[in-house]
Amino acid sequence: MGVLITAIVLILGYGGAYLASDDVRYLTRAGIEQTLILQKRRPIDRLVADPKLDAETRAYLQLVLAVRAHAVELGLEAGKTYTTYSDVGRDTLLLVLSASAKTCICPVTWSYPIVGRIPYKGYFDLKRAQQEADKLAAKGNDTYLRPAAAYSTLGWFEDPLLSTAMVKDSVELASLVFHEIAHNSLYVKSATPFNESFAQLVGYRAAEEFYRGRGDSALADRARDRWADEIVLGEFYHALLDRLEAFYAGKPAPDSLAAGRIAIARWSREQLEGPLGGRLRTVRVGRLAERPINNAALVGVRLYRTHLDWFDRWYDRHGHSVRASVAALRELMKDIAGDSAFARLQRALADSAAPGGQ
What is the count of structural domains for the chain? Predict the structure, then answer.
């Protein structure tokens, strides 16, 4: 009830500003949606005990509780995240918009309280998301809208498990729970690629440890292989982005720009259908190879796959332990913000590799 009262006070307090400011209207809508989600929460342990619940859903909810408990054992800041379940009443929770100029990998960013500047914006209003994407496209930008099934409030609220996040793949479900809880445990302001890539490590490596501890080697191996594929894809996208940035640096004319992007898309397809695709263990190349160059989509890709190999080296150097890796990284990242996070991690890895290092 306190959250509901707070949301109402905020809405009333905006008053006339609501009519004058798109940002205020946006934040108001987000506050209303968050309030509705929290109002619909039901304790997962009670749902699991309900005899009317179908067996498949019960099994997935029990998995979430087990994964949550393991997150606590790993020293992650689980709090009461995912102890409740909320049915949002629709297939798509929200759409996430990213945008970039066509002539560079230079994302449009938005500023928010607490989290700082981030290169995307989430919309609960799906029509407005498309309108904003159209506005940015009309200015000559690449735009990209993707659905999101879950998000973290970084511990500010007791995040419920959302119906849109109930994927049927148990490894992906476990990874999602670990991923979102990881954001509660370590968040560097204005460092979205660092935060998301760190959470990717925790998601899959913790899922691997979780299933290994339960004696389920098949699912543990699948989690391990999914993480390995993320690293391979990270290498591929890094090479693709380097190629694009070198091309854009030449400031090509409009005709050359279009032709060059088509040529680089062809190179990308050849890589995915050739040597790189052969290294993937769980990911099917499929439509990946058919995608045209879209700088905004690549901005989103980079958020989740930046220097994944660095995080894996950090994991290796801390005894292949999520607990030890996260604890050491939290200590390392004290009083840091923005791009400095990756620079500090890189230095730490170099120092530990030097003679006399750990």
Answer: 2
Query: Is there a domain that residue 115 lies in?
Result: no
> For residue 66, is pLDDT > 60?
yes
Counting Cβ atoms within 10 Å, is residue 174 exposed (0-12), middle (13-18) or buried (19+)?
buried
* Token representation of residue 228: 């390995």
Which range of residues forms the domain containing residue 20?
Answer: 1-39
pLDDT digits over 6-42, tens only? Answer: 333 333 343 344 334 566 666 667 777 777 887 888 9
Query: Is-contact 165 179, C-beta < 8 A?
Result: no
Q: What is the pLDDT of residues 116-129, one digit of tens each?
A: 788 889 888 889 99
Q: Is 20 within a domain?
A: yes
| pLDDT at residue 101 greater than cutoff 70 | yes
